Amino acid sequence: MNHQTKSIKAILFDLDGTLRHHLPSGGEVFVEHLKSIHVHFSEEEKSRAERWEHFYFANSLEIQTDSITFKYDKNEFWVNYSKRRLIALGLSKQRATELAPEVSAHMGTNYKPEVYVPEDAPMILANLKETGYTLGVVSNRDEPFHEELKNLKLDSYFSFALAGGEVQSFKPDTRIFQRGLELANASAHETLYIGDNYFADVVGSLRAGLTPVLYDPGTLFPDAECVVIQSFTDLPDLLK
C-alpha cells in the first residue's frame, strides 16, 4: 500500500457510517427487539443481515425498486424493508411477512438514536488537512448536506461535499466518484476513498480507479480485498 500512497493528493470520505454514526445503530435496536419477542438467530446470521443491509443501501436494484414502489408510502417502504431484513436473518418469507409490520412499528416509535462523530476523526482530519491533502466528502445522500457537516463541526476540514442527488449518480456508480475527482482537482490514482460500505465504497471507488480503504471497526467484511482500517488513527501510517 505504501508505494501507492506516495503520490496521494486527495482523500475522499463517505459520510454516513464513516464520519457520521448513530448510537445505538438501527441494526442493534432491530435485533434487540427480536430477542425480546423470542426470535432466535445466530451471530453469523446477525452479521449476514448487517452485510445485507450494506448491500441494500448501496443503491441496489432492490432499493431502487422499493423506492419507486413505495414512493408515496414511506410506512410501507419500512415495513417492506423490515421483511427483507428478517429474511436476511434467516426467517421464512411467511414468518417475515407476519412480523414485519410490528417490527417496523417498533422501530418507528423507539428508534431515536444520537448522532456522533468518532472521537479520533477530528484530530486526524486536521492533521491530514495541515499536511496538504485535499479532503472531500462524497455521499449517497439525495440532498446537499453542508449544514449537517457544520452541525457536526466537520465542515472546516473539507474542500467540498458532494451528494449523489446533485449529480444523479449514487455509489457504486462511477460518475459520482468522477465528479468528486473533478472537485478535488485530482486524478483517480492520486486519490484515496474511505468508506464503511464494501458494496458502495470499495466496489465503486475501485471501478472508478481510486484506491479504496474500508473503514470497518466491527470487522463486518473480513474478506475485503483492500486495505482495511478500524480507526481513523490508522490513516497516517498508510500515507507514510
Mean pLDDT: 95
Count of domains: 2
CATH top level class name of the largest domain: Alpha Beta
Strand percentage, roughly?
5-15%
For the largest beta sheet, what order do the strands appear in spatially?
A: 5-4-1-6-7-8
The largest β sheet comes out as:
6 strands, parallel
Q: Poorly predicted ranges (pLDDT <50, ≥5 residues)?
A: none
The Rg value, from CA coordinates, equals 19 Å
Provide an overview of this structure:
- This protein is an alpha/beta fold.
- The chain folds into two domains: 2-20 and 117-238, 3-Layer(aba) Sandwich (Rossmann fold); 24-110.
- 49% of the residues lie in helices and 14% in strands.
- It has a six-stranded parallel sheet with strand order 5-4-1-6-7-8, with helices on both faces.
Can you give keywords for this protein?
globular; Rossmann fold; 12 helices; alpha/beta; 240 residues
Offer a quick outline of the entry:
The chain is an alpha/beta fold. It has 12 helices and 8 strands.
Topology:
Layout: H1 2-5, E1 10-13, E2 21-23, H2 26-36, H3 43-56, H4 61-69, H5 74-88, H6 93-110, E3 114-116, H7 121-131, E4 134-139, H8 146-151, E5 160-163, H9 164-167, H10 174-184, E6 191-195, H11 198-207, E7 211-215, E8 227-229, H12 235-238
Parallel strand pairs: 1-4, 1-6, 4-5, 6-7, 7-8
Antiparallel strand pairs: 2-3
